[in-house]
N-acetyltransferase domain-containing protein
Amino acid sequence: MNLGIAIINVYYLVKIYSARAKKEYFKILSIERDSEYFSHFLNFYREGIKKFVDPAKLKENTYEVSFYILRNMVPAGVFLGSKYDENTLKVELDFVIPEYRDFKIGSFIYEESKDYFLDRGYNRLISYSTNDEHIEYLRKMGFEQKEDNGNKYFEKLMKK
C-alpha cells in the first residue's frame, strides 16, 4: 500500500514540476478605441478594478497606451496609460485577472517589454497608489517611491 501511495506521489510531483517548466507565451494586443470586449472586460472585473481605480473613469478607451496582456492566448490583463509629459507615461491601470496574479505578467510588461514603451518615446513610467497590495506589486516590479510637493508616487525608469 505504501508503494502505491509513493508511486502516486511521484506521478503528481512530476506533473507539477513539468507544468512549471513549460514555456509560457505572452503577447501584447492593442485595444481598439471602441472595443466592445474592453467594455465587457471592465464590467466583468469591476469589483477587482475598484481596489485600484474608479471603474467609471475607465468607460472609454482614450488612453495613449492601451493593451491586453495575453498569457497562452488568454486575455489575462489590461494595461492603460496616459501621457504625463514628453517622456513619461502615467500608468492608469495595470490589472491582471485573479487566476494569473503570480507576477509573471508584470515581469513581462515591465522587463521583457521595455522596448514597447521606449519605442513610443517613454523612458519613465509613474503610478499613483494608496493600496498596500498594489504598492507591494509596484515595488516588486522595480518602481521606486518618490515625492513631489507632498504627493507620493512610484517611478520606474526604462532602460535598454
Remarks:
- The longest helix spans residues 2-21.
- The two ends are 57 Å apart (CA to CA).
- The mean pLDDT is 90.
